[in-house]
Amino acid sequence: MDYKKFRLLAIGSALIVSACSFSEDSLWPSLTGEDPAGSTSEAQEQASAKAAAPQQAQAGAQPAATAVPGQPALGTGNFVPSGVTPGSATGTFVGKKVVELRGELQRLQGNIGQQNGQLQKLRGQLVANSRRYHGTIAAVNARLQVGTTPGNPILVQQFKSAQADLSRVAQDVTGMNELANSIGSSSTMSAFLSESAKSAFAISGAIDEDHRQLAILEDEVNRTDVLIDRLLTEVSGDVRRQTNYVTTEQSNLNLMSAGIKTGEIYGGSLLNVAMASSGGGMQVSAGAPRPTANRRPLVVIRFDRKDVPYQQALYNAVSRVLEKRPDAVFDLVAVAPSAGGQARVALNTNKARRQAETVLRSLIEMGLPPSRVAVAARTAATTRTNEVHLYIR
Q: What share of the chain is helix, strand, coil (3-state, %, to 5)?
């Protein structure tokens, strides 16, 4: 940003002069709008959607559209076993083996039916819990959008409700993961039955009817094995997507908590912003802080009064950086005046460090990993009050 724009921004607002200044443009949020008290139900309606009806897995059902806005799509397969063809006893050893394997297959298909029922139940619970969760956070965000008092108790209660809903979603995902393990056991049993049916053909003393029933049984075991494989694939996909969803929403809830404390709305978690811009997760570390000489700070927070409202401006600046440079790391520097004698300098330096730690906690609450920030301290003859500078590398 050019220097004239920077001057205009600094002069245009008393908050900026006393709190934050930027080396590039910053978009301040609009704090206009109607009271959201009457729009809560509308937000909940927008956050709700009907769960798609299950489809036959034999047709290779694909995941449907997201059941709740903001939640990844759930699979829609309905995995119903085709059943076991009855047979007559032949009195031979192989015939008895066929009867035994048929009974095992019936029990296996019964287990699959129960697992399928459990899957459909978990999906319904997950969608219902997600609907409540998104309805609650929509109401909180609507209130924060128009501005409210810091620590508004109504929003605190709604936040706790959203936390409980998201916790229930996480429990549903855990249930799906346990279901996947159970389906894995069924897959092992199916492989054993398939191998046993093949081996039975080599047993001597069989009659033609034994082999005919064995062939039917083998086909049904193979179809069951395919059904189990599709069931396991779909459940594993649901677990993976919903686990990532819960992790993302937990980060967003942390940021919402920070917003409720200040009475302002931010946006998505800073880490989520970076991941969305990069297309995936990244392992980035700031390492040791770098010298700040001849570097222009991204943000300057001047602690010249109590309770400086820097959070919104800080979030805007860092969020815009991460949108353009998802791998960006930062240097957070506590700056104290060097004038006033040794005792005064020591006092101001300690205070500036505590203020820098407060800013660092704010960044972490906003979703920026602490590994992305290196912290340092220095004194400066050009400053008259404690400041915290944020630099981008």
A: 60, 10, 30
